[in-house]
Fold this protein.
Amino acid sequence: MSLACLMLLAAFPAFAGELDGAFASASATVEKARGAWFRKVVGPSGFAFDGLEAWGVLPRPVFDPARAHQASPGEEPYKSGPLDRPDVYLGLRADGAEVDAGLIWDHVYDRAGRDTGEFAYRVYWRTSKGGWKNPEVGAEDNLYLRPGDRFALTLRALPDGTARLSVRRAGAHGAAAGYSFPVPGLLAGDGSLKPLSFKRVHSIDQFRLEAGMRRGNEGRPAIATSTRLSGGRWEGVHLLKADGSRRALSGPLATVARGVDAAGRYGAVFPGAGVGEGGAEDMAILPPRS
């Protein structure tokens, strides 16, 4: 994580001005991705930037009791829990390669690997060709953050075709860790990085049930739910250059990608959405109940 990011994180600045009206500082497109209620802001594609940093406050979830799941016989125990999962993350994309990396609602495991029965935001990353990963249960870098915690995330694409995720929790019980992982398809034939774009997302990811078993909802219509997210905030989001300079992910650099499920009722699902001058924005998601 850059020195400038750490300095900003120590202070956690609040942006004094009000947020711009929805889309006043960002263009908007409709994305065909389905299966979740997501608020996504994407930067430009090209060679100008090789990373993204963001900091803020994690949102507080209230879950739909009708969408709680107890693992069925023969199903892995970790599949018990809410079928709606809050997710706060960064991402990068190149031709043939994609990464999502950040914090998602998950079981809390103790140092011995036992499920404590609690849930919190847990570090994860996934690549389009490498699958889903978490830090090892019981490891020092298996970080958990709670709703209301102040966080900082940094995601960078490295010249060797790997990505590095840095995560920090601020405060009296602060902790920080870094994670490096390969990203198949990130390099061009000459060994250089392909043109990249970066994104920041807060979402309610979803599962569905089939014959009593939990299944991913990707590619299916997003599911009506009374699960809610509120009280979170992106306090700053910056695109990073290899020379150490940065630009706020806002104004002409920012494009809002509206999921097709929410596009027709976007203002109701994401109340007050609007990208502020420094990339700031409140995190609130109110999906339709029916």
Remarks:
- The CA atoms of residues 63 and 227 lie 4 Å apart.
